[in-house]
Amino acid sequence: MFKKILIANRGEIALRIIRACKEMGIKTVAVYSTADAESLHVHLADESICIGRGPSKESYLNIPALITAAEITDAEAIHPGYGFLAENAHFAEVCASCQIKFIGPKPEVMRLMGDKVQAIAMAKKAGTPTTPGSDGPVKDEKHALEVAKRIKYPVIIKASAGGGGRGMRVAHTDLSLTQAFQTCRAEAEAAFGNAEVYIEKYIEEPRHIEVQVMGDEYGHVAHLGERDCTIQRSHQKLIEEAPSGVLSPKQRRIVGKYALKLAKEVKYSSAGTIEFLLTKDGNFYFMEMNTRVQVEHPVTEEVMGVDIIQEQIRVAAGEKLSIAKTEMEPRGHAIECRINAENPEDNFRPSPGTITTYHVPGGPGVRVDTHLYQGYKVPPYYDSMLAKIIVHAPTRNEAIKRMIRALDELVVEGVHTTALFLKNILSSESFRTGNYSTHYVDDMRKKKEKIDKEKK
């Protein structure tokens, strides 16, 4: 087992990894930017090193600075968390060349599954259903129009190296397709340094279902059930739950087997997530694979009783999976709400500033993963997430009530947050009955705009 791990991240995920390491008797090294000098992960780690100024490119994305920090502190491994360099195959290769263990899958697997076109090809090879679309990258507008004619409108253009909703456009006509094609290529080039795009049939009003997988370096692979991440805005998840409230036992077995087959096909090791779209008629289509731990991993931990971060670390150290079965049954229901420093009343404008008052919810079945404290200054450089509130209860209905209670107890002053916005979603009839799709938040916004217009 490792004696010391450097955490190449910040905020709540850095704290989450520090806590897992402490329980395993592993020393930790925190890295931080000048903007994060007073962040909680800096104070709770055994050692800490400043690696640059506030902007990510000058700190958390600075590979030479991270490697130097690991070498200076004699860290044997680096945990990337999520975001930043977590899915950067080059970073994993640099770690290996410096004899530092990267806590994640092999670089070649990250590169393979990080390319959406290649990932779809691997899914097809594994027998996992994929959305009808182009067989590989789309070369030009003429090719795009040919694909659209074959699979019928509406279609969606996606960046091959994309993620987070960037380099993505929906088209309903030939004209909108040709315009969106050039826009997506430009966005993809700017965001990912790769202008390659592909086209798929656009699935209208889907659910977003993802399956947590774990693998070790001995060929053992298991899945820890599914999560429902349908409530999202601009392709960014807001509320996640496990298990999904809409899947039948048969559907749960089917999507689990699809994920397991694909993970085995690519010889996956470490924690990863295989994501699907669920259509209104009950069909699953592979969407992508995330070769890292997810923000929403706690809901799976709560219903499965597995510490995913500790499992990641053990696998990276050469141990076999501690999960006995390839499939596990969930215990109860868990929901996670992401509390962001954003103003929902002002088009979700980011809200950096100083936390003047802070009270965390508690009580049975409530978990809060956060780096906040009273007096903490929320910097403007990074993702706006402040905290994750996770609740666990025997049933979905009880979990919803528990989350609403927890959100009522939460007090964050000094910045705007999305807490009340999320409470309104949880309190809605649509959410309680499971009658919603990935368009729920947009539909809710349009409905509000219509009501406001009628009032005027």
Summarize the structure.
The protein is α+β, with helices and mostly antiparallel strands. It has helices spanning 11-24, 40-44, 63-72, 89-97, 107-114, 116-125, 141-151, 174-192, 249-265, 297-304, 308-316, 396-409, 419-427, 429-433, 440-455; strands at 4-7, 27-33, 47-52, 77-79, 101-102, 155-159, 168-171, 197-201, 207-215, 221-233, 236-242, 270-278, 284-290, 333-340, 342-343, 349-350, 353-354, 357-359, 366-370, 377-378, 385-393, 411-413.
CATH H level, superfamily name of the largest domain = ATP-grasp fold, B domain
Task: Give the total of beta strands.
Answer: 22
Q: Tally the helices: what do you get?
A: 15
- Global shape: globular
Radius of gyration, Cα only, in angstroms? Answer: 22 Å
Residue share in helix: 25-40%
Q: Give the distance, in angstroms, between the N- and C-terminal Cα atoms.
A: 65 Å
Record the strand order, biggest sheet: 13-12-9-10-11-14-21-19
Would you identify the regions where 5 or more consecutive residues have pLDDT less than 50? Answer: none
